[in-house]
Amino acid sequence: MRITVIGASGPTGKVFCQLATERGHDVAAYVRSAERMAGVPAAKVYAGGPFDAATLEPAVEGSQAVLIAFGLKGARRTPLYSKGTQLVVDTMHRLGPRRLVVVSEAAYAPHLAGWLARTVSSAYHLTQRPIITERRLQDDIVTTSGLDWTIVRPGLLTDAPASTAASASLEPFRRFTRVSRTALCLSILEWLSDPDTFGHDLYY
Ligand SMILES: NC(=O)c1ccc[n+]([C@@H]2O[C@H](COP(=O)([O-])OP(=O)(O)OC[C@H]3O[C@@H](n4cnc5c(N)ncnc54)[C@H](OP(=O)(O)O)[C@@H]3O)[C@@H](O)[C@H]2O)c1
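== NADH-flavin reductase ==
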């Protein structure tokens, strides 16, 4: 399958590119800087900004699936999750691929369950309000896109090695969880073509 990975230069994006390539997929990596992909296997690397339709289009053309793995760093008011995701959705509608997987987070309602998770995340809410606002906008864009979407919601991501896929839940966890990026990406690869995961949030 040809898979476009947006934000392929991040830690999760790189792991996904490696695992997908090893399993025979044709990875089209979309990144801000091609230099950040040195040593990472991908069939093709496309460089462009998150709001640049002209550079995104060739990266998505011919793909059957798109993975959004970017994460906002630095300027917290950049509309990466809203405007960046809207551009991906619009490009997919124009070019044809229907399968969209988004790596998001679980640190805001209704994705938090239980008093412990809510209490611990309250500090995150105080300091990261613009990011949570952006995440909610992203959720609206993805869930109303009409595409075959899945939103992946890990707790804390780690770089621990893994040889098997992580198991996901359809319900938010009542405790803080951590999952290795490798196990998460193996899981995504397993159910990329599984219609049972379409239209769902998956918690890790
Ligand atoms: N880290 C965790 O414990 C954790 C927990 C739960 C959820 N998540 C979410 O999981 C996803 C993947 O996390 P991660 O730790 O692998 O990656 P990350 O560090 O959150 O994101 C890195 C990627 O995002 C890109 N990026 C950052 N700011 C950008 C901007 N303003 N415009 C365009 N691209 C931008 C980076 O590009 P450059 O390489 O060019 O900088 C890189 O490709 C993220 O959405 C993150 O929020 C992370």
